[in-house]
Amino acid sequence: PLLLGLLSDHFGICSAWRTAAQDSSSTMVFRHTYFAVTALLASAAILASATAESICTLSDSETCAVDSLTPSDDDGSVLIYPGGYTRCAFDDYTDSVTTFSTNSTYFFQVFPNTNADKSKLMIFFQGGGACADEDTCAFGLQCSLGASATFTTAATSSSAGVLDRSLADNMFKDWNIVFIPYCTGDIHIGNRVNAAYESGIEVLLGNTQCLGLDYATHMNGYNNTMAVLDWAIENYPEVDDLIVGGESAGSLGAQVHSAKIADMWDVKSKGTRFSVLADSYVGVVPKDHPAAELLVTYGACTNDFGLSEDIVAACEAGTATTIEMIEALLEAQPEGNWLFIDSKGDKTQRYFYALVDEGILGYPFSDLIFEEYFFSNMSAITDAYQTVSSRITTFYVEGTKHVFLADSNFTSYESDEGLLLGDVINAWLVSNSSLNTGATAEPTTGAPSSTTATPGATTNTTPGSASATTSPSGTSSPTATSSPSASSPSATTTSPSPTTTAPLAC
Predict the structure, then answer these.
(1) Which tens digit of pLDDT belongs to each residue from 122-177?
(2) Does domain 69-430 have CATH number 3.40.50.1820?
(3) CA triplet 72, 75, 77: central angle to 5 degrees?
(4) Cys-Cys with 144: which of 50, 207, 372, 476 at CB 3.0–4.6 Å?
Protein backbone atom coordinates (compact mmCIF):
# COMPACT_ATOMS: atom_id res chain seq x y z
CA PRO A 1 0.00 0.00 0.00
CA LEU A 2 2.82 2.43 0.82
CA LEU A 3 4.55 1.77 -2.52
CA LEU A 4 1.29 2.22 -4.40
CA GLY A 5 0.71 5.49 -2.58
CA LEU A 6 4.15 6.75 -3.53
CA LEU A 7 3.64 5.72 -7.15
CA SER A 8 0.23 7.37 -7.11
CA ASP A 9 1.72 10.65 -5.99
CA HIS A 10 4.61 10.44 -8.45
CA PHE A 11 2.85 9.12 -11.54
CA GLY A 12 -0.67 10.39 -10.98
CA ILE A 13 -2.46 7.06 -10.57
CA CYS A 14 -6.13 7.71 -9.84
CA SER A 15 -7.10 8.12 -6.20
CA ALA A 16 -9.40 5.11 -6.42
CA TRP A 17 -6.37 2.85 -6.88
CA ARG A 18 -4.67 4.45 -3.87
CA THR A 19 -7.75 3.88 -1.73
CA ALA A 20 -8.09 0.29 -2.94
CA ALA A 21 -4.56 -0.48 -1.81
CA GLN A 22 -5.21 0.60 1.77
CA ASP A 23 -6.88 -2.62 2.85
CA SER A 24 -6.07 -6.19 1.92
CA SER A 25 -9.45 -7.08 0.43
CA SER A 26 -9.41 -4.05 -1.84
CA THR A 27 -5.84 -4.86 -2.82
CA MET A 28 -7.02 -8.28 -4.01
CA VAL A 29 -9.73 -6.60 -6.07
CA PHE A 30 -7.09 -4.31 -7.57
CA ARG A 31 -4.89 -7.26 -8.47
CA HIS A 32 -7.71 -9.25 -10.03
CA THR A 33 -8.91 -6.26 -12.03
CA TYR A 34 -5.36 -5.61 -13.18
CA PHE A 35 -4.97 -9.19 -14.36
CA ALA A 36 -8.30 -9.17 -16.18
CA VAL A 37 -7.64 -5.92 -18.01
CA THR A 38 -4.13 -6.96 -19.00
CA ALA A 39 -5.37 -10.31 -20.29
CA LEU A 40 -7.76 -8.52 -22.57
CA LEU A 41 -5.06 -6.14 -23.78
CA ALA A 42 -2.88 -8.92 -25.17
CA SER A 43 -3.10 -8.90 -28.95
CA ALA A 44 -4.37 -11.82 -30.99
CA ALA A 45 -2.26 -14.93 -30.97
CA ILE A 46 -3.33 -18.14 -32.64
CA LEU A 47 -2.40 -20.34 -29.72
CA ALA A 48 -3.20 -23.67 -31.29
CA SER A 49 -1.39 -26.63 -29.83
CA ALA A 50 1.40 -28.02 -31.96
CA THR A 51 -0.49 -30.67 -33.89
CA ALA A 52 1.97 -31.24 -36.72
CA GLU A 53 3.38 -34.75 -36.56
CA SER A 54 6.17 -34.11 -39.01
CA ILE A 55 9.20 -32.39 -37.50
CA CYS A 56 12.61 -31.56 -38.95
CA THR A 57 15.65 -30.04 -37.24
CA LEU A 58 18.14 -28.08 -39.32
CA SER A 59 21.79 -29.08 -38.92
CA ASP A 60 25.01 -29.30 -40.91
CA SER A 61 23.82 -32.59 -42.33
CA GLU A 62 20.07 -31.85 -42.53
CA THR A 63 18.73 -29.03 -44.70
CA CYS A 64 15.04 -29.92 -44.23
CA ALA A 65 14.50 -29.55 -47.97
CA VAL A 66 10.78 -29.17 -48.59
CA ASP A 67 10.78 -31.94 -51.21
CA SER A 68 12.06 -34.41 -48.61
CA LEU A 69 9.50 -33.59 -45.91
CA THR A 70 6.36 -35.54 -45.10
CA PRO A 71 3.58 -33.22 -43.92
CA SER A 72 1.33 -34.37 -41.11
CA ASP A 73 -2.00 -35.96 -41.93
CA ASP A 74 -3.98 -33.65 -39.65
CA ASP A 75 -3.20 -30.19 -41.04
CA GLY A 76 -0.71 -30.80 -43.85
CA SER A 77 2.15 -28.96 -42.16
CA VAL A 78 5.71 -29.56 -41.01
CA LEU A 79 7.50 -28.00 -38.03
CA ILE A 80 11.09 -26.97 -38.67
CA TYR A 81 13.53 -26.16 -35.87
CA PRO A 82 16.23 -23.88 -37.32
CA GLY A 83 18.47 -23.60 -34.24
CA GLY A 84 21.39 -21.21 -34.71
CA TYR A 85 20.66 -17.69 -33.49
CA THR A 86 16.90 -18.25 -33.23
CA ARG A 87 15.15 -18.15 -29.87
CA CYS A 88 12.17 -16.71 -28.00
CA ALA A 89 12.25 -13.81 -25.56
CA PHE A 90 13.00 -15.59 -22.28
CA ASP A 91 14.83 -18.66 -21.04
CA ASP A 92 12.66 -21.63 -20.09
CA TYR A 93 10.53 -21.00 -17.04
CA THR A 94 7.23 -22.19 -15.57
CA ASP A 95 5.55 -20.44 -12.67
CA SER A 96 3.20 -22.62 -10.64
CA VAL A 97 1.43 -19.63 -9.10
CA THR A 98 0.62 -17.44 -12.12
CA THR A 99 0.73 -20.17 -14.83
CA PHE A 100 3.22 -17.97 -16.72
CA SER A 101 5.37 -20.18 -18.92
CA THR A 102 8.18 -19.50 -21.36
CA ASN A 103 10.13 -21.61 -23.81
CA SER A 104 13.26 -20.32 -25.49
CA THR A 105 13.21 -22.81 -28.39
CA TYR A 106 12.04 -21.47 -31.74
CA PHE A 107 10.49 -23.25 -34.72
CA PHE A 108 8.51 -22.32 -37.81
CA GLN A 109 5.76 -24.08 -39.72
CA VAL A 110 5.48 -24.96 -43.40
CA PHE A 111 2.38 -25.93 -45.38
CA PRO A 112 3.65 -27.31 -48.73
CA ASN A 113 1.38 -27.56 -51.74
CA THR A 114 0.16 -31.16 -51.91
CA ASN A 115 1.12 -31.46 -55.60
CA ALA A 116 4.60 -29.97 -55.13
CA ASP A 117 3.53 -26.91 -57.14
CA LYS A 118 5.85 -24.12 -55.99
CA SER A 119 4.39 -21.29 -58.06
CA LYS A 120 2.51 -19.59 -55.19
CA LEU A 121 4.06 -18.74 -51.82
CA MET A 122 2.67 -16.87 -48.81
CA ILE A 123 4.90 -15.93 -45.88
CA PHE A 124 2.64 -15.23 -42.91
CA PHE A 125 3.64 -13.57 -39.62
CA GLN A 126 1.79 -14.63 -36.47
CA GLY A 127 0.36 -12.09 -34.04
CA GLY A 128 0.55 -12.20 -30.27
CA GLY A 129 0.82 -8.88 -28.45
CA ALA A 130 3.87 -6.70 -27.90
CA CYS A 131 5.81 -4.76 -25.33
CA ALA A 132 6.34 -1.02 -25.59
CA ASP A 133 9.14 0.05 -23.27
CA GLU A 134 11.67 -1.12 -20.69
CA ASP A 135 8.93 -1.88 -18.15
CA THR A 136 6.66 -3.98 -20.35
CA CYS A 137 9.51 -5.79 -22.11
CA ALA A 138 10.96 -7.09 -18.83
CA PHE A 139 10.61 -10.65 -17.55
CA GLY A 140 9.64 -9.62 -14.02
CA LEU A 141 6.54 -7.72 -15.14
CA GLN A 142 5.45 -10.29 -17.74
CA CYS A 143 5.85 -13.13 -15.23
CA SER A 144 3.96 -11.17 -12.57
CA LEU A 145 1.09 -10.72 -15.02
CA GLY A 146 0.98 -14.49 -15.46
CA ALA A 147 -1.57 -15.72 -17.99
CA SER A 148 -2.26 -12.03 -18.66
CA ALA A 149 1.22 -11.35 -20.09
CA THR A 150 1.06 -8.75 -22.85
CA PHE A 151 2.85 -10.88 -25.44
CA THR A 152 3.29 -14.53 -26.32
CA THR A 153 6.45 -16.06 -24.84
CA ALA A 154 6.58 -19.43 -26.62
CA ALA A 155 6.47 -20.40 -30.29
CA THR A 156 3.13 -21.96 -31.24
CA SER A 157 1.79 -23.60 -34.37
CA SER A 158 -1.56 -23.02 -36.04
CA SER A 159 -3.88 -24.34 -38.72
CA ALA A 160 -6.64 -21.74 -38.44
CA GLY A 161 -8.24 -19.40 -40.95
CA VAL A 162 -6.07 -18.85 -44.01
CA LEU A 163 -3.92 -21.81 -42.88
CA ASP A 164 -6.86 -24.23 -42.84
CA ARG A 165 -6.65 -26.46 -45.92
CA SER A 166 -10.09 -27.94 -45.21
CA LEU A 167 -12.03 -24.70 -45.78
CA ALA A 168 -13.71 -24.93 -49.18
CA ASP A 169 -13.74 -21.16 -49.70
CA ASN A 170 -10.16 -20.60 -48.50
CA MET A 171 -8.44 -19.12 -51.56
CA PHE A 172 -5.05 -19.97 -50.02
CA LYS A 173 -5.68 -23.68 -49.45
CA ASP A 174 -3.44 -24.69 -52.36
CA TRP A 175 -0.69 -22.13 -51.66
CA ASN A 176 2.65 -22.98 -50.13
CA ILE A 177 2.59 -21.18 -46.78
CA VAL A 178 5.52 -20.47 -44.49
CA PHE A 179 4.12 -19.52 -41.08
CA ILE A 180 6.41 -17.48 -38.80
CA PRO A 181 5.50 -17.95 -35.10
CA TYR A 182 5.92 -15.04 -32.70
CA CYS A 183 7.37 -15.13 -29.19
CA THR A 184 9.58 -12.06 -28.79
CA GLY A 185 7.22 -9.12 -28.13
CA ASP A 186 8.97 -6.99 -30.78
CA ILE A 187 6.60 -7.27 -33.80
CA HIS A 188 9.11 -9.64 -35.46
CA ILE A 189 11.76 -6.95 -35.94
CA GLY A 190 13.80 -6.74 -32.71
CA ASN A 191 17.54 -7.27 -32.50
CA ARG A 192 18.79 -6.57 -29.00
CA VAL A 193 19.18 -8.17 -25.58
CA ASN A 194 18.01 -6.27 -22.51
CA ALA A 195 19.54 -7.16 -19.17
CA ALA A 196 17.15 -8.20 -16.43
CA TYR A 197 15.21 -5.18 -15.20
CA GLU A 198 12.64 -4.47 -12.50
CA SER A 199 11.15 -1.03 -12.03
CA GLY A 200 9.28 -1.71 -8.78
CA ILE A 201 5.87 -1.78 -10.45
CA GLU A 202 5.99 -5.59 -10.36
CA VAL A 203 5.70 -5.56 -6.56
CA LEU A 204 2.14 -4.23 -6.86
CA LEU A 205 1.06 -7.50 -8.45
CA GLY A 206 2.17 -9.53 -5.45
CA ASN A 207 3.97 -12.32 -7.29
CA THR A 208 7.32 -12.02 -5.58
CA GLN A 209 8.41 -15.44 -6.88
CA CYS A 210 8.80 -13.77 -10.30
CA LEU A 211 11.29 -11.20 -9.05
CA GLY A 212 15.06 -11.28 -8.77
CA LEU A 213 15.45 -14.15 -11.27
CA ASP A 214 17.88 -12.30 -13.55
CA TYR A 215 16.17 -13.29 -16.82
CA ALA A 216 17.29 -11.15 -19.75
CA THR A 217 14.87 -10.20 -22.55
CA HIS A 218 15.92 -11.39 -26.00
CA MET A 219 14.23 -9.25 -28.64
CA ASN A 220 15.13 -11.66 -31.38
CA GLY A 221 12.33 -11.27 -33.90
CA TYR A 222 14.65 -10.11 -36.68
CA ASN A 223 17.04 -13.07 -36.37
CA ASN A 224 14.12 -15.51 -36.19
CA THR A 225 12.56 -14.01 -39.30
CA MET A 226 15.79 -14.05 -41.28
CA ALA A 227 16.37 -17.72 -40.42
CA VAL A 228 12.91 -18.55 -41.77
CA LEU A 229 13.40 -16.43 -44.89
CA ASP A 230 16.78 -18.05 -45.59
CA TRP A 231 15.11 -21.46 -45.58
CA ALA A 232 12.18 -20.22 -47.67
CA ILE A 233 14.32 -18.65 -50.43
CA GLU A 234 16.36 -21.86 -50.63
CA ASN A 235 13.26 -24.01 -51.06
CA TYR A 236 11.01 -21.63 -53.03
CA PRO A 237 13.45 -19.57 -55.12
CA GLU A 238 11.23 -19.17 -58.19
CA VAL A 239 7.59 -18.25 -57.60
CA ASP A 240 4.99 -16.54 -59.75
CA ASP A 241 3.02 -15.11 -56.81
CA LEU A 242 4.54 -14.01 -53.51
CA ILE A 243 2.47 -12.68 -50.59
CA VAL A 244 3.82 -11.35 -47.31
CA GLY A 245 1.01 -11.37 -44.75
CA GLY A 246 0.39 -11.08 -41.06
CA GLU A 247 -2.15 -10.50 -38.31
CA SER A 248 -2.02 -8.04 -35.42
CA ALA A 249 1.65 -7.63 -34.43
CA GLY A 250 2.42 -9.85 -37.41
CA SER A 251 0.74 -7.31 -39.68
CA LEU A 252 3.35 -4.75 -38.67
CA GLY A 253 6.09 -7.34 -39.08
CA ALA A 254 4.90 -8.11 -42.61
CA GLN A 255 4.85 -4.43 -43.53
CA VAL A 256 8.32 -3.69 -42.17
CA HIS A 257 9.91 -6.78 -43.77
CA SER A 258 8.08 -6.35 -47.10
CA ALA A 259 10.75 -4.52 -49.12
CA LYS A 260 13.53 -6.82 -47.92
CA ILE A 261 11.51 -9.91 -48.87
CA ALA A 262 10.72 -8.46 -52.30
CA ASP A 263 14.43 -7.82 -52.78
CA MET A 264 15.41 -11.34 -51.65
CA TRP A 265 13.09 -12.87 -54.25
CA ASP A 266 14.13 -10.26 -56.84
CA VAL A 267 10.48 -9.78 -57.73
CA LYS A 268 11.03 -6.79 -60.01
CA SER A 269 13.45 -8.39 -62.46
CA LYS A 270 11.66 -11.74 -62.37
CA GLY A 271 8.21 -10.23 -62.88
CA THR A 272 6.90 -11.93 -59.75
CA ARG A 273 3.53 -10.68 -58.55
CA PHE A 274 4.23 -9.29 -55.06
CA SER A 275 1.59 -8.46 -52.44
CA VAL A 276 1.30 -7.47 -48.77
CA LEU A 277 -1.69 -8.65 -46.72
CA ALA A 278 -2.00 -6.66 -43.47
CA ASP A 279 -4.69 -7.82 -41.02
CA SER A 280 -5.56 -5.57 -38.07
CA TYR A 281 -2.64 -3.26 -37.51
CA VAL A 282 -1.86 -0.03 -39.32
CA GLY A 283 0.25 1.75 -36.71
CA VAL A 284 -1.72 4.59 -35.11
CA VAL A 285 0.38 5.93 -32.23
CA PRO A 286 0.29 9.14 -30.16
CA LYS A 287 1.82 12.21 -31.79
CA ASP A 288 4.37 12.63 -29.00
CA HIS A 289 5.44 8.98 -29.28
CA PRO A 290 6.41 8.44 -32.94
CA ALA A 291 6.55 4.85 -34.17
CA ALA A 292 10.34 5.08 -34.28
CA GLU A 293 10.40 5.03 -30.48
CA LEU A 294 9.18 1.43 -30.59
CA LEU A 295 11.86 0.48 -33.11
CA VAL A 296 14.50 2.04 -30.86
CA THR A 297 13.14 0.00 -27.94
CA TYR A 298 13.40 -3.16 -30.06
CA GLY A 299 16.88 -2.36 -31.40
CA ALA A 300 15.47 -2.48 -34.92
CA CYS A 301 16.40 0.78 -36.68
CA THR A 302 19.64 -0.44 -38.26
CA ASN A 303 18.33 -3.85 -39.35
CA ASP A 304 18.28 -4.44 -43.09
CA PHE A 305 14.70 -3.56 -44.00
CA GLY A 306 15.60 -1.65 -47.16
CA LEU A 307 15.10 1.78 -45.59
CA SER A 308 17.04 4.78 -46.88
CA GLU A 309 19.85 6.31 -44.81
CA ASP A 310 17.79 9.37 -43.89
CA ILE A 311 14.89 7.25 -42.64
CA VAL A 312 17.29 5.07 -40.64
CA ALA A 313 18.77 8.21 -39.08
CA ALA A 314 15.30 9.53 -38.21
CA CYS A 315 14.44 6.14 -36.74
CA GLU A 316 17.54 6.13 -34.54
CA ALA A 317 16.65 9.66 -33.42
CA GLY A 318 13.19 8.39 -32.46
CA THR A 319 11.41 10.85 -34.76
CA ALA A 320 10.38 8.79 -37.81
CA THR A 321 6.62 8.30 -38.12
CA THR A 322 4.65 5.28 -39.28
CA ILE A 323 3.83 7.05 -42.54
CA GLU A 324 7.42 8.06 -43.25
CA MET A 325 8.80 4.57 -42.72
CA ILE A 326 6.13 2.61 -44.59
CA GLU A 327 6.01 5.13 -47.45
CA ALA A 328 9.77 4.62 -47.85
CA LEU A 329 9.16 0.87 -48.18
CA LEU A 330 6.34 1.46 -50.66
CA GLU A 331 8.64 3.59 -52.77
CA ALA A 332 11.33 0.90 -52.59
CA GLN A 333 8.86 -1.63 -54.03
CA PRO A 334 6.29 0.43 -56.00
CA GLU A 335 4.76 -2.56 -57.80
CA GLY A 336 3.59 -4.24 -54.60
CA ASN A 337 -0.15 -4.74 -54.09
CA TRP A 338 -1.26 -4.01 -50.52
CA LEU A 339 -4.50 -4.90 -48.72
CA PHE A 340 -5.25 -3.48 -45.25
CA ILE A 341 -8.05 -5.22 -43.31
CA ASP A 342 -9.20 -3.41 -40.16
CA SER A 343 -12.24 -2.71 -38.05
CA LYS A 344 -12.96 0.99 -37.71
CA GLY A 345 -12.93 0.88 -33.91
CA ASP A 346 -10.41 -1.94 -33.32
CA LYS A 347 -10.27 -2.06 -29.54
CA THR A 348 -6.96 -3.89 -29.31
CA GLN A 349 -5.22 -1.29 -31.47
CA ARG A 350 -6.75 1.43 -29.28
CA TYR A 351 -5.52 -0.29 -26.12
CA PHE A 352 -2.00 -0.52 -27.49
CA TYR A 353 -2.23 3.20 -28.34
CA ALA A 354 -3.06 3.80 -24.67
CA LEU A 355 -0.18 1.60 -23.51
CA VAL A 356 2.27 3.56 -25.67
CA ASP A 357 0.77 6.85 -24.54
CA GLU A 358 0.46 6.21 -20.79
CA GLY A 359 2.77 3.30 -20.03
CA ILE A 360 1.91 0.36 -17.80
CA LEU A 361 0.77 2.66 -15.00
CA GLY A 362 -2.10 3.83 -17.20
CA TYR A 363 -4.09 0.68 -16.49
CA PRO A 364 -7.00 0.10 -16.51
CA PHE A 365 -7.13 2.62 -19.39
CA SER A 366 -10.67 3.71 -18.62
CA ASP A 367 -10.62 6.54 -21.17
CA LEU A 368 -9.64 5.03 -24.51
CA ILE A 369 -9.49 7.24 -27.57
CA PHE A 370 -12.84 7.33 -29.35
CA GLU A 371 -13.49 4.94 -32.22
CA GLU A 372 -14.03 7.91 -34.55
CA TYR A 373 -10.73 9.49 -33.53
CA PHE A 374 -8.90 6.20 -34.06
CA PHE A 375 -10.49 5.58 -37.46
CA SER A 376 -9.82 9.07 -38.74
CA ASN A 377 -6.14 8.71 -37.90
CA MET A 378 -5.93 5.17 -39.26
CA SER A 379 -7.56 6.19 -42.54
CA ALA A 380 -5.26 9.24 -42.70
CA ILE A 381 -2.32 6.83 -42.74
CA THR A 382 -3.73 4.60 -45.49
CA ASP A 383 -4.86 7.68 -47.46
CA ALA A 384 -1.26 8.90 -47.33
CA TYR A 385 -0.08 5.55 -48.68
CA GLN A 386 -2.54 5.89 -51.56
CA THR A 387 -0.82 9.12 -52.60
CA VAL A 388 2.40 7.14 -53.01
CA SER A 389 0.99 3.98 -54.59
CA SER A 390 -2.08 3.29 -56.72
CA ARG A 391 -2.04 -0.32 -55.50
CA ILE A 392 -3.28 0.20 -51.92
CA THR A 393 -6.66 -1.34 -51.06
CA THR A 394 -8.44 -0.93 -47.73
CA PHE A 395 -11.23 -3.07 -46.26
CA TYR A 396 -12.91 -1.46 -43.25
CA VAL A 397 -15.40 -3.27 -41.02
CA GLU A 398 -17.77 -1.56 -38.61
CA GLY A 399 -17.17 -2.42 -34.95
CA THR A 400 -14.23 -3.19 -32.69
CA LYS A 401 -13.10 -6.66 -33.79
CA HIS A 402 -9.39 -7.44 -33.94
CA VAL A 403 -8.02 -9.96 -36.50
CA PHE A 404 -10.09 -11.55 -39.26
CA LEU A 405 -7.88 -13.98 -41.18
CA ALA A 406 -7.60 -16.38 -38.23
CA ASP A 407 -11.33 -17.19 -38.34
CA SER A 408 -12.87 -20.10 -40.23
CA ASN A 409 -15.47 -17.72 -41.65
CA PHE A 410 -12.98 -15.00 -42.64
CA THR A 411 -14.35 -14.79 -46.18
CA SER A 412 -17.81 -13.77 -44.93
CA TYR A 413 -16.91 -10.57 -43.07
CA GLU A 414 -18.66 -7.56 -44.57
CA SER A 415 -17.11 -4.14 -45.12
CA ASP A 416 -18.72 -0.79 -44.39
CA GLU A 417 -19.54 -0.71 -48.12
CA GLY A 418 -21.34 -4.06 -48.07
CA LEU A 419 -18.52 -6.05 -49.70
CA LEU A 420 -17.53 -9.54 -48.56
CA LEU A 421 -13.91 -10.07 -47.56
CA GLY A 422 -13.65 -13.26 -49.62
CA ASP A 423 -14.78 -11.44 -52.76
CA VAL A 424 -12.37 -8.58 -52.14
CA ILE A 425 -9.39 -10.89 -51.54
CA ASN A 426 -10.16 -12.87 -54.70
CA ALA A 427 -10.36 -9.67 -56.74
CA TRP A 428 -7.22 -8.28 -55.08
CA LEU A 429 -5.24 -11.40 -55.95
CA VAL A 430 -5.55 -10.63 -59.68
CA SER A 431 -5.68 -6.82 -59.66
CA ASN A 432 -2.76 -4.45 -60.08
CA SER A 433 -4.57 -1.38 -58.81
CA SER A 434 -6.54 -0.30 -55.77
CA LEU A 435 -10.04 -1.73 -55.46
CA ASN A 436 -11.20 1.39 -53.60
CA THR A 437 -13.31 3.95 -55.42
CA GLY A 438 -11.34 7.12 -56.07
CA ALA A 439 -7.96 5.71 -55.08
CA THR A 440 -6.21 6.32 -58.39
CA ALA A 441 -3.01 8.12 -57.44
CA GLU A 442 0.02 7.15 -59.47
CA PRO A 443 3.07 5.81 -57.62
CA THR A 444 5.72 8.41 -56.95
CA THR A 445 9.41 8.12 -56.21
CA GLY A 446 10.07 11.60 -54.92
CA ALA A 447 9.74 13.06 -51.46
CA PRO A 448 6.80 11.96 -49.31
CA SER A 449 3.60 13.79 -50.02
CA SER A 450 2.22 16.48 -47.77
CA THR A 451 -0.06 13.93 -46.14
CA THR A 452 2.65 12.62 -43.83
CA ALA A 453 1.52 13.89 -40.48
CA THR A 454 2.46 11.74 -37.54
CA PRO A 455 -0.13 9.00 -37.01
CA GLY A 456 -2.30 10.12 -34.17
CA ALA A 457 -1.67 13.79 -34.91
CA THR A 458 -4.25 15.91 -33.18
CA THR A 459 -5.25 19.46 -32.55
CA ASN A 460 -4.72 20.96 -29.11
CA THR A 461 -8.00 19.48 -27.98
CA THR A 462 -7.63 16.65 -25.51
CA PRO A 463 -7.72 13.24 -27.26
CA GLY A 464 -10.92 11.41 -26.50
CA SER A 465 -13.10 14.49 -26.59
CA ALA A 466 -15.68 14.85 -29.33
CA SER A 467 -13.83 17.69 -31.01
CA ALA A 468 -10.42 16.02 -30.92
CA THR A 469 -11.04 13.94 -34.01
CA THR A 470 -8.59 14.44 -36.83
CA SER A 471 -10.06 14.06 -40.27
CA PRO A 472 -8.37 11.84 -42.85
CA SER A 473 -6.94 14.92 -44.50
CA GLY A 474 -5.10 15.82 -41.29
CA THR A 475 -7.26 18.82 -40.37
CA SER A 476 -9.27 19.26 -37.23
CA SER A 477 -12.86 18.22 -37.50
CA PRO A 478 -15.33 20.43 -35.62
CA THR A 479 -17.73 17.57 -35.14
CA ALA A 480 -17.53 14.07 -33.76
CA THR A 481 -17.68 12.44 -37.17
CA SER A 482 -14.89 11.39 -39.49
CA SER A 483 -14.81 12.76 -42.98
CA PRO A 484 -15.26 10.10 -45.65
CA SER A 485 -11.96 9.12 -47.18
CA ALA A 486 -11.14 8.09 -50.71
CA SER A 487 -10.50 4.60 -49.48
CA SER A 488 -13.79 4.36 -47.64
CA PRO A 489 -16.43 6.39 -49.46
CA SER A 490 -19.25 5.36 -47.20
CA ALA A 491 -17.39 5.78 -43.92
CA THR A 492 -19.67 7.49 -41.41
CA THR A 493 -19.57 7.47 -37.65
CA THR A 494 -21.92 7.87 -34.75
CA SER A 495 -21.61 10.16 -31.78
CA PRO A 496 -18.63 9.13 -29.68
CA SER A 497 -18.95 7.72 -26.21
CA PRO A 498 -16.15 6.99 -23.75
CA THR A 499 -14.89 3.42 -23.66
CA THR A 500 -14.56 2.23 -20.11
CA THR A 501 -14.28 -1.52 -20.48
CA ALA A 502 -11.40 -3.71 -21.58
CA PRO A 503 -11.44 -5.22 -25.09
CA LEU A 504 -12.77 -8.68 -25.69
CA ALA A 505 -10.11 -11.35 -25.73
CA CYS A 506 -8.66 -11.84 -29.20
Answers:
(1) 999 999 999 999 999 999 999 999 988 999 999 999 999 999 999 999 999 999 99
(2) yes
(3) 55
(4) 207
